[in-house]
Amino acid sequence: MEEASVVRKIVLMIISVIIVLLLIGALGTFIYVNASMKAVDSDNDTTQVVEVPMGATASSIGQSLEEQGLIKNAFIFRLYVKFSGEANFRAGNYELSPSMSMQQVVDELNDPEAGNTPSESAAVPEGSDIEEIGVILSGSLGIDQQAFLDKMKDEDYIKQLIDEYPDILTEDILNKDIRYPLEGYLFAATYNFTSSDDITVDKVVHMMLDKSQQIISPYLDGFKQKELSVHEALTFASLVENEARNEDERKKIAGIFYNRLADDMRLQTDPTVLYALGEHKPRVYYKDLEVDSPYNTYRNKGLPVGPISNFSENALEAVVQPEESDYLYFLAGDDGEIYYARTFDEHEELIEKHMHLDE
């Protein structure tokens, strides 16, 4: 009897431990699932358009939402819509925000009036300047081009935007020498609008700045490590964007710019001359290099007064993580290839070999 009693006590103790562990596990799971259901960032009410393709599964939609920072956990999303029976998503475009809980996201995706198919869109390429963006918005969305350009120079409007986007817009852009304060700050992307949208200059600008903030924010610490302000970093990125064609070239050219700045050399980058001239042409001539402008990096040391265009995320990455080398010069040959040199004599040899210049 004594042995049986001991066995019972051991069994009861093991069962008790198992029950406690199960309860702890259940509580932990509840806390984890509950946290996953909450908003990614309740203070971030910026919105972005999310496309749900025809035939998309709850799994693929959840993965896309997690990657875009709109839900915390794609797996929990898939389980939630499965067990709640709320997976009747329609193809379309939905405006979602990181401030929305998972339930709110699911409700929006199930709203038959929310997922409007875009009736109009504007595709803004990388390396576009403000005036080119104005042409695109006019042709794609019917925005008055001059009204857009006027808004881009409206100081009161710009100050209002600085208040709204303090992480990326600073008073640096109010420098009187800057042609357009928002030059470089309107990110390259495709912007979709539905038939119910009231498409105004202000709405388009806010959509573009929302996108810029989303892209730029992860690089802010990197800018600080490079001792660059946001304005300087975006200016740097615009130069890299206009000089390079791919990721490898961007990182190498960014490294060369850093080398030249460290040696107190002028950057001497042709795209800044073209921007100063207000022209787009395939070749910069010697006479062009004398243009008197704070954008002209042949006449002025350091970075120009501001960006000369928008840029790709790769260009931002190149500014933060440039390729280290001992190159100080590069040129784009007539064959489209980029050639690099360590000394001015090497650079001149490459010019003679790969370029045919007219005075």
From TrEMBL:
PANTHER family the UniProt entry points to: ENDOLYTIC MUREIN TRANSGLYCOSYLASE
One of the record's GO molecular function terms: lytic endotransglycosylase activity
NCBIfam families registered for this protein in UniProt: endolytic transglycosylase MltG
Site (Important for catalytic activity): E243
Enzyme class: lyase
Catalytic activity: a peptidoglycan chain = a peptidoglycan chain with N-acetyl-1,6-anhydromuramyl-[peptide] at the reducing end + a peptidoglycan chain with N-acetylglucosamine at the non-reducing end
BP GO terms, sorted: cell wall organization; peptidoglycan biosynthetic process
Cellular location(s): Cell membrane
Membrane spanning stretches: 12-33
Protein name: Endolytic murein transglycosylase
Superkingdom of the source species: Bacteria
Function: Functions as a peptidoglycan terminase that cleaves nascent peptidoglycan strands endolytically to terminate their elongation.
Protein EC: 4.2.2.29
Gene it is expressed from: mltG
One Gene Ontology CC term in the entry: plasma membrane
Topology in membrane: Single-pass membrane protein
